[in-house]
């Protein structure tokens, strides 16, 4: 007799055949039926019929079992399997994944809605997408395919398979920590700080907060179930212990600042003093409370500014200059720079030592940030604007010499597209060591001698040149009193550090500033690519005119007499024209005070 398939052997029904109306078939132990008493031997044909009948029934049972098996094992996912109510049974894994994705899209409102989360005593809402909560379709289908039992359960059973939930552990930790906010009891993070060159230990203390993995697991388990999802608060300990902090002080921090470190280079030696080491040695913990000692390169470089100046040469960017009256590219020049990034790492090996505190530094070539090719593409090809103002006194007066000096310092300044030019930054301090002389300047409403007096005339000239070039005004301030040598409203003073003159190159082209002077005038020209047909000014009428008063000052070297000037308010409009049309206008307004008539002497009785 043919046996049932092996995998079904335990589940195949037991079939017994009993004799109906006639002698029993051979039975007893090992037979198909029960044992019967001996009797007349049946005719041969009747015995064969019984055998055939028994074989036919057995075959039918086996066919039924095989059919049930084929039905139950159709597809890779067992029949009757659902995930969140979505039927996946009797499908291949690929088809089941497609059906599950389609079904989940229909539940988007549920899956994307804010999730209430309990953090200690607080309940907050988070967005599932913000923490990476999602159903892993492929993993869910794989779990569903493995969920079936034997043939009977695969044919007649039904099962709801829980989805496999994914979450971004790091994102979830960040979002939950932000939500917890001040309710967390922060750990006292370990550290070693410096007061001058004296190290001080900060010992760690535990706090109450979140464990990233436990939080993620709570979100996985609770997202599609209980509301609000309870996320546990746990006692958190910094990764670095108090003993380890004390060890850092004894073995690294204290010896690090006990003596200087000498860095040898091909251009000379650089001494790293203990103060620079204390400022750049970082012994603070990360968010887990672990201290990873490092030397901060930026802090080290800042602390070594003076020693580095002895061995380093800054690279010079390529720029533009006028040669024979035409713009020409000036090549950049390489510089020399100590590799402080490598030095920062090498120092850590030397700092714990009491002696042999010398290491070799590496000098690198510092390349210009702006190359000749960069400059050549910037379209500096023509004079866009020029402006001239006149001054009295010739080149022998201190005021005129100040104007000439600042013009020389500004000549050739090159402003990249999008960059802002600051006159105070470009020239630096304008004082006696730089060659500036005492000349009248307005301080406290009166003229007094001051270093750099007269520079405002150059500022006004530069402002007008950039103004008529159409460049963006960032900072300027007209004088308190009106002087007829300047255009009303469209002029500017300067008084570092409180007042500066700044403009922004709001064009796609480079801007080259050129200056020139005579014995009685100063001229500033802007070279670039012309954008506007013209930039002109229209002035409104003067209004609110006030007359000067007479004031008497104590005679002496600091007293400068004046004839007095009227005050007034006035508006001016900068008008831009392009392609024959006005494209823009900007309004400038200013109110001048009446300059008193200052007399050096006592007032009449």
TrEMBL record:
Where is the sequence biased in composition, kind Gly residues? 24-33
User: What InterPro entries does the record tag this protein with?
Assistant: Glycopeptide_resist_protein, Vancomycin_resist_VanW, YoaR-like_PG-bd
Q: Name one Pfam family in it.
A: PG_binding_4
Stretches that traverse the bilayer: 51-74
Enumerate the UniProt keywords alphabetically.
Membrane, Transmembrane, Transmembrane helix
Q: Where are the annotated segments for Disordered? A: 18-47
Q: Which residues form the YoaR-like putative peptidoglycan binding domain?
A: 249-358
Protein known as = Vanomycin resistance protein VanB
Q: Source species, please?
A: Phytohabitans suffuscus
